[in-house]
Give the backbone structure.
Amino acid sequence: MAEDLIRYDLLVQDALRGVVRKVLDDAGRDGLPGDHHFYISFKTRAPGVKLSARVREKWPDEMTIILQHQFWGLRANEDNFEVGLSFANVPETLVIPYDSITAFNDPSVPFGFKLEPRESSEAAASEAVKQLAAKKPPAPSAPSLSPPAAIPTPAKAKSAAPSAAPEKPKEPARLPAEPRKKAEMASPAKVVSIDAFRKK
């Protein structure tokens, strides 16, 4: 089977949402014709749905409203419709996007169809922004710094003669012990007579 690149299913759903908008627009302007009345089911937590916390708590996922005798202020807008209804004798104004509708029925004919709820592009973008804002950004990791590459330094010019450690001062040359003794014996000794010390 060939792949549906046109997406007829989405086109049909968009067309059916257009049917709901047209029917509600006519009913809001001229009232319900004859015995026609509408059962409209929608997701209560879909983006753009506005209703009291009390009603949402009673129908946390999906609810069905009946537009027949007791409703007021029906107005069809481009992306949603508004209607006033009474819940346990408490008046409420609901705002219901067409994208949140899951089913539409007119039992007087009968006529009806089901829809796949979808998020509008603006609502989806807004929801994505909220989710990103709610997430804590990860702590920035310290950049790993690699040690700088060694920069080659120019080779030092070699001196003409290799530097030598300073020499210790040389001691005077001394003869070995045996030749020194002979040299001392060879030198004539000075003889001092005792008479030099006697009193004259």
User: Anything to note?
Assistant: The two ends are 159 Å apart (CA to CA). The longest strand covers residues 80-87. The mean pLDDT is 78. The first helix runs from residue 8 to 30.
